[in-house]
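Thread: quick sanity check before group meeting

JM: Hey all, I'm pulling together slides for Thursday and realized we never actually wrote out the predicted structure for the chain we discussed last week. Dropping the sequence here so it's in one place. If anyone has concerns about the input, flag it before I start.
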Amino acid sequence: MRHSKAIILALALLFLISACKNEEAAVETVKQGSAITFDYAAGFDNGTLFDTSIENAAIQADIFDPNRVYQPEKIVIGQNLLIPGLMEALIGMKEGETKNVRISPEKAYGARIENATNVISKEIFDEPEKLRVGGMIVINTPEGDRIPVFVKELNEENVTIDQNHPLAGKYIQFAVVVRSIG
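JM (edit): ok, ran it. Output follows.
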């Protein structure tokens, strides 16, 4: 009698374990082409938050922008613009999973390129009063290419532009949570 109860209990446990394994096999993970929704918080190695999809986190970090809508990001892996290190971190994650990842400059915003700055006259801009340090502008090259650059410095006559992204050369910390897949 004791042995039959033990066998029944063992069989029940095996059934439960195999059911759990079957559920795990059916759990969808993020892969190339997956449509996902995720929240994130991005910061520097020193813990300073510079971007997030979560309004309360932005308020607490004193980076809140009243003109921005804070909500989870919706993307298709491989089709939307996403820094490579973040895309790699998302691949393989499951719905509801949270991950913290440190991304090298090469897989984030690139290595910083020295001598990638130029000084140009404010006269070439239609609305120079709208230029802001840290703002992005698009410059047309003589060859007809359009290059996004960042305003590094401003004075009465000139604008110093930088072809490096403001976060180039920096390690970035991301905390991400996948809200949905599919």
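AS: nice. Confidence is low (pLDDT under 50) at residues 1-19. Residues 117-162 form a domain with the Thrombin, subunit H fold (CATH 2.40.10.330).
JM: adding both to the slides.
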